[in-house]
Amino acid sequence: MDGIEPAGQRVRPKRADARRNEQTLLDAAAAVFVTSGVEAPIRDIAAEAGVGTATIYRHFPTRADLIVAVYRHQVESLAAAGPALLKTSATPYAALERWIDQFVDFVVTKQGLAAVLQSDDPCYDPLHSYFLERLVPVCTELLETAAGAGEIRAGQDASELMRGVGGLCAGAGNNPRYDARRLVGLLIAGLRR
Fold first, then answer.
1. What is the pTM assigned to this prediction?
2. 62-193, superfamily in CATH?
3. pLDDT digits (tens, 9 = 90+) for 30-43
4. In this structure, which topology does domain 1-61 adopt according to CATH?
């Protein structure tokens, strides 16, 4: 089905191989952003993805386009993971644990994006609202399902939990002995009945 851009122009949907290539680029960019920050050379992202730099620029003409796309891609991956984990995990609590583990990965990547996301560039303004709109309902569903199964205490607030996980992840600073994942594991274990 064709989409329509705001200006009323029809756009063709991307071919399956073009979508896969874009996903590969986004995953590579996220990995490079975690290790080298968002100012990493485009050639490093291209090398990680196994493509030329022209391919990246063809998909993402500016660095801001790439950063926004990485952020949205990761949010969408997390949003899709919640329901999938509920279907495939042994218990709702196991699904919650696995989703929070993926959320930790996202938060670590997001910290690499933090300086850019807090810049004056208006293209980044809607991203925080987008994050909340997409992920709070997913976390809420995971919490409510685990509580309904009697695995965790009822009445947990998804926003508070996500903020707590984010705070634990941010606490590492430059301390190599700080293990945010272990601390987040303790936080999630504390939800159990």
1. 0.79
2. Tetracycline Repressor, domain 2 (1.10.357.10)
3. 889 878 878 889 99
4. Arc Repressor Mutant, subunit A (1.10.10)
